[in-house]
Design brief:
about 300 residues, EC 5.4.99.-, Structural Genomics Hypothetical 15.5 Kd Protein In mrcA-pckA Intergenic Region, Chain A, 15 strands, alpha+beta, PsdUridine_synth_RluA-like_CS, Pseudouridine synthase, isomerase, 3 domains, 7 helices
Length: about 300
């Protein structure tokens, strides 16, 4: 096997002040906490040039340097059953799943955790061969830290039609997001282009020269510390909801990367953004009939929401 290494170096942002090194690495580099801890134990991580323990705390402005070794092809799909992935619907053309937090959709450099495509391969699903080898059959993605409903195509015909439907914005994508404070107005549309953050390559920002990005939101519940929103995406940019809500100064609860209050995050017991894909609707590629699939809140988000409700 060919030993390959990925070197990464980033400054710790203000929002991660006081976080454990392994938690900060997970946020900054898109790693699992387990992978981050293994790298620290293996001496692959320094903070301002000094070795660290996984329980050490980070300060804003310090520099994390990480060396991430991997064997062979980092984009290879490894078949494995992933605990927590639920099959919502399965037919000859598509498979609809409920993705848990901590699972990537497909392999990528630096990510060694579980993937949706790896689970499907391990469970014996045959998916479409269209697309790059590591993401065959994939017509949409959810962040590692975002849970909820998503569709993967099994037939080439299904891939072609659904890929085009997402491109033409005819797919109905509905999320629920618990955001800090109370957006004003209570419902509206955010039309702001999104691009790679100029100073942090692990996140995105509203940028004048970014790609067009449109988010519609409506307040479902308003509480003392946070509001529960229903969000519909017109476009599908990476981190779109997180970036747009942060730009309004109402980041998703728990989303330290995009400016969420760490104290509130700890109070509600979240180590990820409160964001869940609750509903997905589209024309079925075989029948042409409109179909809709839903996902309920996972336990961590339900608990956090109850704590917010009880604080009123």
């Amino acid at each position: 096997m060919t030993q390959q290494v990925d070197h990464r170096s980033l400054q710790v942002p203000d929002g991660l002040a006081g976080e454990r090194v392994d938690a900060a690495m997970a946020q900054m580099f898109g790693l699992s906490r387990t992978r981050a801890a293994d790298l620290i134990t293996g001496g692959m991580v320094t903070l301002d040039g000094a070795a660290v323990a996984k329980s050490d705390r980070v300060l804003p402005g310090t520099r994390l340097d990480v060396t991430i070794p991997f064997e062979g092809d980092p984009l290879e799909v490894v078949p494995e059953i992933v605990e927590g992935i639920k099959i919502i619907h399965d037919d000859d053309s598509i498979v609809v799943i409920d993705k848990p937090v901590g699972v990537a959709v497909h392999p990528s450099p630096g990510w060694s955790g579980p993937t949706v495509v790896g689970h499907l391969a391990g469970a014996g699903f045959r998916i479409a061969t269209s697309g790059a080898s590591e993401r065959q059959g994939i017509v949409q993605r959810l962040d590692v830290g975002t849970s909820g409903v998503m569709v993967i195509t099994k037939s080439e015909h299904g891939y072609s039609l659904l890929k085009n439907a997402f491109r033409q914005r005819t797919v109905d994508k509905t999320y629920h997001a618990l955001v800090q404070g109370h957006p004003d107005p209570h419902e509206g549309t955010i039309d702001a282009p999104i691009g790679r953050h100029p100073r942090a390559d692990y996140k995105f920002a509203v940028m004048g020269d970014g790609r067009p990005s449109v988010t519609h939101y409506e307040t479902l519940e308003a509480h003392r510390f946070a509001s529960l929103l229903e969000v519909r995406l017109e476009t599908g940019r990476t981190h779109q909801i997180r970036v747009h809500m942060a730009a309004l100064k109402h980041p998703c609860v728990g989303d330290i990367t995009y400016g969420a209050d760490p104290t509130l995050s700890r109070r509600v017991g979240l180590e990820r953004q409160w964001l869940h894909a609750v509903k997905l609707g589209f024309e079925h590629p075989d029948s042409g009939a409109y179909v809709e699939y839903e996902s309920t809140y996972p336990d961590d988000l339900s608990r956090a929401l109850e704590i917010i409700r009880d604080a009123d």
